[in-house]
Structures
1.
Amino acid sequence: MQAADQLIDQATAQMLDSIDANDLLYQVQSSFDYDPGPDLEKISASLFAVNTGDDLINPPELGILQQQIGRVAHGRAVLIPADSRTAGHSTHTKAVVWKKYLVELLHPASTDPEKTK
């Protein structure tokens, strides 16, 4: 228990030393009223919307992503099942989990057997 407390104290001290409070507040506040919904049809670029099965901020059970992705002309929703690699909403910081989808987005020919012939 003492080792766990020390680890938490150390991680907290490192975080507080490297984060600007005003920047963090700006980041958090900018998401309060963010709603891409009204302009989804305006997106013309290819888009992957990635979510994980354990995301509590954007829970897949609500079906919002699956319902709305159809409004994006070249949009695709990807739901990564929760497993030992995912970390809920924080999975966005773990590129190893979603990297293959980014590669596919940036280099579609490398993942499409028809385009590599």
2.
Amino acid sequence: MTVPGPASSDDPQARDLPLDAHLHTDRSADSDVPIDVYAAAAVERRIAELAITDHIDFDPHLPNHAPDAAERERLVRDAAERWGPLGVTIRHGLEVTYESHRETEIREHLASHAYDFVIGSVHIGPDSPYHARRVAAWVVGRPLAEVLAPYFDEVRAAAASGLFDSLGHLDFVKRYLWPHVRPADLAGRMDLYDPILRALVESGTGLEVNTSGLRQAPGETYPAPGVVARFHELGGQRVSAGSDAHRADWFAHGLEAGYRAVADAGYDRLAFRRGTERVEIPLPARFGLA
């Protein structure tokens, strides 16, 4: 029997990788995927380790406010016991919606719960200037720095907080700015990214290469490979990679390209946390740096 190799261009779901560090199950309001579906896909595609990073919101008006943290942990730990003997390691993670004015609540929650790996991300809420009903009016007539300021200021605060293992989808706002602002408009503006990247370096927080943008209008990772390379130039030590899947067919989607962005930036390993232990996971040899 022929053993399938890495995913080809017509199979965007990756194979033979050590980690997908960003996955949402039916315990997130915007996903309906049972954890066992991801685990079975990991067995089939030989993705060795998964981080289940369901959402938590601290704004009571948002859909993932006040989840049952104990029940979430039980489901993940039980799945880890079921699937470990089959070759898939499953970690109990979290994706926090970061809002600077709620930082105390976030800090208290993280201090009182045991997560293996925590991503901090800035999302687009119903009152955001980037919401579909108002984004065009927000963009028109404003210079790019001003357009991005509300989002990038919050992202920089998340990076500086030191609360998270990794900063999720740094420039996810590209999804909402399309087509008014395109990736090419941002490609040469490292001056806008540098304050965030420097805050990550100073706080020791990792940078996530999030591959969901490859299946969305921007058509590139969050952030793009050039930003990952700039993080390396500035002394960034820690990078992670995740598909940010919310559907079964998004599992490991684009993850090969995400790993390639990590390798091309000059990294030969991913940064991860397993409980209290920070670990480094070498990239597979096919990326040329392992």
3.
Amino acid sequence: MKGMVPVLVGFARALRSRGLAVGPGDVATYCAAAATLDPTDLADLYWTGRTTLVSRRDDLAAFDEVFHQYFLGGRRPVDELLRLTARVSTEAESTLEVPLADERGEEDDDEQATMGLVASAADVLRHRAFADCTPDELRAVRRITAKLRLDPPRRRTRRSRPSARGRRPDLRRTVRETLRLHGEPVPLRWREPRVRPRPLVLILDVSGSMADHSRALLQFAWSARRAVVKVEVFCFGTRLTRITPALRRRTPDRALADAAELVLDWDGGTRIGASLDRFVRTAGRRGVARGGVVVICSDGMDRGDPDLLAEAMERLSRQCRRIVWCTPHGPGAGVGLVVAEPYVDLVVRGRDLASLAELADVLPTLP
């Protein structure tokens, strides 16, 4: 982001030269807001600048013109609506994306039709299986997955907190307010139970049979790691590997690269039973999953001992609150899933971006 600050300051100067009232405080807010976003995403820079640097509706047209002139050299072709190139620094050139701003001109109809095609393409990409995606589409999927907002499952604790309408009256606070007002009656005060996030454990299958889905699932795990405080991520093929430290990187590409270095059996065989048995005997005994939700992402193609898998699942069901199995093939597919299904609370699909979004929506609703 340090390399982008001079670029953003120069853009603010260009706006001031066109008569826009852009002060130093506005520029600082623009840079601070852009620091929380992807600095290589020109769409984020556009909408962030439009929100923080434009104070009057009459200045929108001038802002759009300066933005396209500054970042795109004045080019506004419709066929480059999705992918436009901008010079970010003097040494590197990055391929960025930006939607064109609303304009009243002869190209309105063409731009509206193109935006309709873009929305349709995004919907198709959302429901396209990871195995059917091209490399460019997989990169787009990873960008969208990185912006998923995961709300963790929560539980009520024994402690309580003040509330406007709680479950039980707060007699101590009520009496205190009455004494403060010298005996004048006050409305009854209430308390409600405190709510804390449950631990979330992701156990991802990175064996050869999951090669088309493993990177998308790791991207989902990276997004979950950013949203949830108590989250642990493990990968397995023929052995179990903890990759939680690798997912603490700010950028998903760096996190996935570090995770790939830790996992020695990537795209290898599958031994679900041995891996889960290792988990319940090590991390499970330390209480990693106590009271939490364990999400197992695997196609269930197990080549290990079914009895070992059944025993590990039975022990895991006693160590955690809920077990969710995410599979790209649906319930009943794979010997491992058939063996583990009696101990699984919920089976969900994990074959495309829409199913991962559904998984993110269903996790907060688990009791």
4.
Amino acid sequence: MAYTRRDLGKIAMASLPLAGAFGAAKINSKFHGVQIGAITYSFNSIASPDPEAIIRAYVEIGLGEAELMSNHCEALAGAPRAVRGGGRGATLTPEQQAARQAQQEQIRAWRGSANAATWKGVRKKFNDAGIEVAVLCYNMNDNMKDEEIEYGFSMAEGLGVKAISTSTTLSMAKRIAPIADKHKLLVGYHGHDATNDPNQTATLESYDTLMAYGKYNGVNLDIGHFTAANYDAVAFLKAHHAKITNLHVKDMKRNHGPYKPFGEGDTPIKGVLQLLKKEKYDIPANIELEYRYPPESNLIAEMKKCLAYCKDCLA
């Protein structure tokens, strides 16, 4: 059979590794239909001074989905680095104060110049490594101005994520709701187990309150903290799955207990993951590594253990 030059070109392109032709092949960390990923918060210890190390870690571990922290997103986009100096409670020297003020002005100017292309460039770095960026974690505090809230939404839209996750107060959730409605972008409010603070997302009533503020107010369900608050993560997921942006997967003890290695706490990790599998909920389950591991181990090894544990739970 004779081949034309065009045919030979097609064959050559087809035989190239995917990384060479179109970027890296997608890393598959979806097991039985359940997407296992991680929040980049887990990689804080290796993110500075080299934020690209986060992407390399995802590849080494075999994680195909990321919940990207906004500070890591900015670092990967080339934002000015923070000036360090003075520990907690320490008084800064006049030189340190001046340097910090100048750096804050640089960051403000840099953020003002950021646009959709800035964030698309960050997404491309992950996509070229075979990693999907599904959620932006942009923590919003009560002191933020509306334009700072809008900045987070513009970052999310530039990245092309399906949702924003955030740790904040109920009073902020009420402020954010109309902005989320305007952008038609779901915001998942991260819960903790501070059930004694009425302005925190922690009690069942607080979840109901924040979801009632707006159509696009949802939940980033941290199944560890939810368990530490003595609630049933499986039942909550079943009842509110349509409003859940993503899960944070960690193991904790009940009664406001500590973080534990996967399988050593009270969090029903297997029950939650099996529910995702059974009901085919399209909700990423993102590992958040917070427990202390022995000095003879390391971050990559522990994340691999967490990923293997989640995979076994879905078998």
